[in-house]
Every structure is written in structure tokens, then in C-alpha cells.
Specification:
This protein is of the alpha+beta class. The protein is built from 9 helices and 6 strands; from the N terminus they run ααααααβαββαββαβ. A hairpin with a 4-residue loop joins strand 2 and strand 3. The two termini are 54 Å apart.
């Protein structure tokens, strides 16, 4: 124990002396000409680019880690990159190796390109297969309302609606309809019910139902002078305020208060939306 403490003190003393001997290396990192806030760093120059930056710039370095590094006299990424891995692992555990790698411009984390959300959906699987059409329609309307709220909350409009059913024998069927871009829960809900009437033809026990909105674009819902009333618009706005404050499940249609044994399963569309 005493040997480890003496070794740590010697290393800290070494790095403090090293820092005092170095000239002022504070440099101003700029992006050159005004761009979109990005800075291009040529391949092979990453370590030099990171060197003068404070250690707090490293992703994952929180307040406690930052304080501990400062106590050790480590204030720049360049200094951190020169500390032996075994010392960092001793002080920070497994994250110590990650600190050293990032300080040396090594990061194996795969790059995930940004992509716009392509769809949003909800499904419900019944604990017991059912023939209760009225109950299923109430649940479909509830799913449609919540998805419509998600559309408005994210500033999106949908142009395609898909209703899915799965029978007790696991055969699955879908019906899809293209519509004008909208986020109106009343219009979307009506389309959902119409599609359900078309897809549910066999009148056999149902195991699962689902709704998906796709063809999403950025935009805000525009009031339709022929289809909307001020009463409905006001109601939709008030319900959105309640959901934003208390959660999506905090308010629903009275018709949605059905006594059904269901198991909620979030749906992940195949297209990754």
C-alpha cells in the first residue's frame, strides 16, 4: 500500500514539474471562415488538434473525473495522453483506458449517420384472442390519438396510414392508405377505423392490432376551414398541453376506457424509423 502511494506521488510530482517547464500552450481553436459550426481535421492530425484542449472537452468526463484529473495536475488533453494507462486504470478503473484512448485520438465507437424518422407506430397484443370489434376500435382510436400527438410534438405530418391485424393462427394482414399531409387526430382516427373495417374480413379471433404513420415530413398542421371546427381545434390544443405536462397516457377519449386485458408492445418498424 505504501509503495503504491509513493509511486503515485512521484508520478504526480513528475507531471507537475513537466507542466511548469512547458511554455504557455493555450491556443485558440477556430473554424476559420464562418461555416455550419464544423471543423475539418485532416486524417493523422487528430491528436495534435486535441492536445491544447482542456480535459473537460473529452466526452464522458464528468465533474468528479474532472476534479480528480485537476488534482493530479492534468488539465489538458496532451498531458492526459502522456500518462501511463496502468496509472489511469488504477485511479479510474476500466474507464481509465477509455480516457487514455480518447486523449490519444483513439475511439473505436462506430459512426452512426443521422437520419430522419421515417415512421412511427404502436401495437397491442391481447393476452386472450378476441372478437370484440368495438373494443378493438376503441384501442385503435387511442393508438391513433397518441401517434397524432407524437406527430404534433415533433413537428411532423404524416401522409400514409397502415393498420395491421394478426389472427389467432398468426396470419398477419395490413391495409394502407395515402392521404394529404396531416397531424389531425380526428381525421387520422377516422382513416384508421376505415382501414380496420377493410382489413378485418375473416371475423376470426384477433391476437394483435397495430397502427403506423409513415411518409413523415417536417411541418405544422394547418387548420382546414371545411373539416375543422374551433371547438375541435381548441380541444386538441388543450389535450396536447395536458399530455406534454403529465405524459401521453394522462388523458384519452372516454370511449377508450375499455376493460380489456392487453399487453402493450412498442413497435419498431423494419425501416428503422
Amino acid at each position: 500500500m505504501y509503495v503504491l502511494c509513493i509511486e503515485l506521488l512521484l508520478l504526480l510530482l513528475y507531471f507537475n514539474i513537466f507542466l511548469k517547464k512547458q511554455p504557455n500552450q493555450v491556443s485558440k481553436i477556430t473554424t476559420g471562415k464562418p461555416t455550419n459550426g464544423t471543423k475539418y481535421v485532416p486524417n493523422g492530425e487528430e491528436k495534435g488538434f486535441l492536445a491544447p484542449l482542456p480535459v473537460g472537452k473529452i466526452p464522458g468526463v464528468g465533474d468528479q473525473t474532472h476534479k480528480k484529473l485537476n488534482f493530479m495536475g492534468v488539465r489538458t488533453i496532451e498531458t492526459l495522453s502522456q500518462i501511463p494507462i496502468r496509472l489511469l486504470e488504477r485511479e479510474f478503473g476500466k474507464p481509465g483506458r477509455s480516457l487514455w484512448e480518447k486523449a490519444n485520438a483513439i475511439d473505436p465507437t462506430p459512426i452512426v449517420p443521422y437520419h430522419e424518422q421515417k415512421s412511427m407506430s404502436k401495437e397491442r397484443t391481447f393476452v386472450e384472442d378476441t372478437l370484440d370489434v368495438m373494443m378493438m376500435k376503441h384501442l385503435l382510436l387511442d393508438m391513433a390519438d397518441k401517434l397524432s400527438f407524437e406527430l404534433r410534438a415533433s413537428g411532423k405530418l404524416a401522409s400514409t396510414i397502415t393498420v395491421k391485424i394478426r389472427y389467432a393462427d398468426f396470419n398477419t394482414y395490413t391495409k394502407q392508405k395515402n392521404i394529404s399531409y396531416t397531424a389531425n387526430d380526428r381525421l387520422l382516427g377516422q382513416h384508421v377505423l376505415d382501414l380496420f373495417d377493410k382489413v378485418y374480413e375473416r371475423r376470426q379471433l384477433i391476437r394483435l392490432i397495430g397502427v403506423k404513420y409513415s411518409g413523415l415530413v417536417q411541418g405544422s398542421y394547418q387548420i382546414n376551414l371545411f373539416d375543422d371546427t374551433m371547438e375541435h381545434i381548441h380541444l386538441m390544443q388543450q389535450m396536447d398541453r395536458i399530455r406534454r405536462r403529465f405524459g401521453a397516457d394522462s388523458i384519452m377519449r372516454a370511449s377508450g376506457l375499455v376493460k380489456a386485458k392487453v399487453l402493450y408492445q412498442p413497435h419498431l418498424p423494419p425501416d428503422g424509423g
